[in-house]
Amino acid sequence: MRSELKMGLSSSLVPVAYALLLLCCFTARNAATAAASGDGGGGLRLNYYSESCPRAEEIVKEQVRRLYEEHGNTAVSWLRALFHDCTVKSCDASLLLETDAATGLVSEQASPRSFGMRNFKYVGAIKSALERECPGTVSCADILALAARDGAAMLGGPAAIPMRTGRRDATESQYGEVERYIPNHNDTVSAVLSRFAAMGLGAEAVVALLGAHSVGRVHCSNLVARLYPAVDAGMEPAYGAYLRGRCPTADAREDTRDVAYARNDRATPMVLDNMYHKNLLKGRGLLLVDQRLASDPRTAPFVRRMAADNGYFGETFAAALVRMSENGPLTGGQGEVRKDCRFVNAK
């Protein structure tokens, strides 16, 4: 979830899961087991469109691949978009609704927490391809979930993640709730764990999902407090010097700091891998909340294990992504299937 996942993820997406308050009965591994069986909570199921639109998932995958080949950062955008959509109450594509002065609807994209998000127009390209094949059938919420799954695969992450579908689209924006639900880049680990525990995600899943910060970039406006007047003591000195070269001083105009950015991962910047976790162990976490994972006793063991085992990271990330994608979906007669993901259907 944001970096592309700037926490709030920047450039395309950042986010991503952080408990121990385990107030929920599901863990990421529970989700993986359920996914394998095809039994989805809330009316979701595998191959939901097998009869109504048999090529739906294939079409999404084709479009995600085409867009990735033309605009590589779209794959990062899909991850951040799913994080933002699902974290704010429900995976219901409310994020995609644009501001409508006539109805008074204010888009979630207008929230400061959504700063740096982009490529929403390409969701429309995917939707158009689906509408040509099966008009009024595939929801925008399912497009976000499937695009995030396929985007992760294009970035070298887990492939063939079982993703249940059957989500419906919201008819209202949750603009007023965004800042309360989306974690901030300088939150404490406890705050982040608590937020994700509400979605049934434990500490292990949080450390895996934040691994999405292995791709994308972070705007300097989220970094200057760690760099000036002195480099954060928890940051590797050489890395701090590099970031000071990327980001202007704290006295620079705010818009300058917004435009400037640093890559989340300099070694494999467009590969979804465990380099994020390796960097945390070296004091190279970009965002404060990232670096804190490496020292908090609830999350540090998972950081070390994922840094040592990319396969374990990928497996845990896949299960956590599925669980996050099933947070409070609208199903059955709830919501609608939008014809245009930007607007509620005309009555």
TrEMBL record:
Keywords: Biological rhythms, Calcium, Disulfide bond, Glycoprotein, Heme, Hydrogen peroxide, Iron, Metal-binding, Oxidoreductase, Peroxidase, Pyrrolidone carboxylic acid, Secreted, Signal
Record localization: Secreted
Disulfide bond residue pairs: 53-134, 86-91, 140-341, 220-247
Binding site for Ca(2+) 1: 85, 88, 92, 94
Residues the record lists as binding heme b: 213
A GO BP entry: rhythmic process
Keyword Kinase: no
Family note: Belongs to the peroxidase family. Classical plant (class III) peroxidase subfamily.
Role summary: Removal of H(2)O(2), oxidation of toxic reductants, biosynthesis and degradation of lignin, suberization, auxin catabolism, response to environmental stresses such as wounding, pathogen attack and oxidative stress. These functions might be dependent on each isozyme/isoform in each plant tissue.
Name this protein carries in UniProt: Peroxidase
Organism of derivation: Aegilops tauschii subsp. strangulata (Goatgrass)
Lineage: Eukaryota, Viridiplantae, Streptophyta, Embryophyta, Tracheophyta
